[in-house]
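Human: Can I borrow your eye for a moment on a structure tokenisation matter? Separate attempts, laid side by side, tell us more than any discussion would. Could you pick a protein and write out its sequence and tokenised fold? No explanation is needed for now; the record alone will do.

Assistant:
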Amino acid sequence: MMKIFFRIFLFVIGLTGGICQSRQTDVSKNSKPDVFAHEDKRIRKDHPVYKMQEFHQRNGLPGLFYKIARQRQIRIGYIGGSITEAGSGWRDLTFDWFRLKYPQTAFYQINAAIGGTGSGLGVFRMERDLLAGKPDLVFVEFAVNDSGTAREELLRSVEGMIRKIWAALPECEICFVYTAAEAHCKELAEGKQQQSVTTMEELADYYGIPSIHLGLEVVRLYVEGKLTLTAEASENARTIVFTSDRTHPLSESGHPIYAGVATRYLERMSKKPAIVRRSLPVPYIADNWQNARMIDVSQTSLSGKWEKLPEESAVMQQFSRYMPSLYRLSPGAVMRFKFNGSVLGFYDCIGPGSGTVEVTVDGQKHVIRRFDQWCSNYRKHNFFIGDLTDGVHEVEVRVLDSPVDKASIMLLKNIVITDPERYAALDWYPANIMIAGEMLH
């Protein structure tokens, strides 16, 4: 019975060229057709998207499938942005593929994805959010959120992630997956690869990491006229609808396409299990962020009005999964510390009651506003202080009482503040200091 169910499952998620959207209604006669109104067989021969490689096996995942054949428990980790964080998305679908293909093995999932974040934060979160679970395989997905990240910066953070994984767990396998928002799909349709992908491919080549571009199948369906990139699914019955917001795949259509591509190549890699004995090569770039670390606020010197939020506070309960400790510093409060390194950042929460901080590093001041138009609710956030040389740095962070025109800022999202008391505070909610180096006491 299980084998029959598994075959049905593979058949359904593999139908990337003909997904049925049962909830869609007929399109209005006056609606505009997709730019590619019909499939031309010549497209497959001449269109640049068919010349782009969807999968690079490199060293594959031999150690994972060797373990699956011999162990009763396997842990699979996922780190990325909101596309990976989404429930019932490619993450859950690929995880279920493992469970169904290998029903005699117990699989455990480690979801370390956080929406709106890139590898620059991810490399600092590795130990606590991912490696503590001792994964046997890690999927890394940051192509969309790192699409605007400079090459050197992306190399530093992603190589740091690779080296952190293999330094802690030498037998753990890694697989890069690349996703694409609407803008990237249109560039891919013109044969232009995402810069984040070409950068990560440098590291994948160097370290022998397999990579799967989940977005190319979406683009191929698009140029064949079978898929509309952005629309409301309920208003479009003629084509597959990939997303309704230009970025996040729909769970009923976009994510199954991604999962179908991923499992196709996982199946291929499963044919070559082998024992893996791995040692780290010399770094691809010398200043990678393998030494990136999170430092708890308790390791700094605090003065003025501050408190560690109790476990029962609403903000703490919302973020305790990724922020085991969270602090509130009110205007006039000061944080001081010293570190030896080249990277400085802060992992914090921002929301209705947050304001502005002044970060002074070696006498140079940086005023950072911790409030934006998305602050109708509290959310995890981070910021970095750039242009630091490698060495010893003295840092002071002061919470300012400078007024913030929150009403005008919220209007950028067409939100009118009707409860001004909720927005009155000007506090700062830090959880961790992020450094590439070491704290000095």
Observations:
- The domain at 2-269 is CATH 3.40.50.1110 (Rossmann fold).
- Residues 151-168 form the longest helix (18 residues).
